[in-house]
Amino acid sequence: MIPAQFDYVAPASLDEALRALADGGEDAKPLAGGHSLLPLMKMRLAVPTLLVDLRRLEGLRGIERENGDWRIGPLTRHADLQRRADLGV
């Protein structure tokens, strides 16, 4: 199936992304990889009016450990996690 029509933006900053999501309302969706959202869109089970592509945003990818806690950025790839022996993988 073909997804319903939608608008697309690829902001250059986190502030721009947050503004686009707020302006787009509840039907605006962030796109960080698309492995879950795109198949749903093809079956028209998800019908966002706006996709906000996050892949260009700095600081949302990476793995850090601080004071015994882990911080895993939302754009961190599974392959990056698999390469980290200190995560117990």
Strands, helices and their partners?
Layout: E1 7-9, H1 14-24, E2 28-31, H2 37-42, E3 50-53, E4 63-66, E5 69-72, H3 78-82
Note the main attributes of this structure.
3 helices, alpha/beta, 25% helix
Description:
- The chain is of the alpha/beta class and 89 residues long.
- It is built from 3 helices and 5 strands.
- A 3-stranded parallel sheet has the order 1-3-2, covered by helices on one side. A two-stranded antiparallel ribbon has the order 4-5.
- Strand 4 (63-66) and strand 5 (69-72) form a beta hairpin.
- The longest helix has 11 residues, at 14-24.
- The chain starts with 6 loop residues before the first strand and ends in a 7-residue tail after the last helix.
The helix content, as a percent range, equals 10-25%
Q: Provide the residue-averaged pLDDT.
A: 90
Which structural class do you get from the secondary structure elements? Answer: alpha/beta
For the record, give the distance between the C-alpha atoms at the N and C termini, rounded to a whole number. Answer: 37 Å
Give the helix tally: 3
User: Which blocks of ≥5 consecutive residues have pLDDT under 50?
Assistant: none
Shape: globular
Percent of residues in β-strands: 15-25%
Reported for the largest beta sheet, the result is: 3 strands, parallel
The largest beta-sheet arranges its strands as: 1-3-2
Number of strands: 5
Secondary-structure element sequence?
Answer: EHEHEEEH
Rg computed from alpha carbons, rounded to a whole number of angstroms: 16 Å
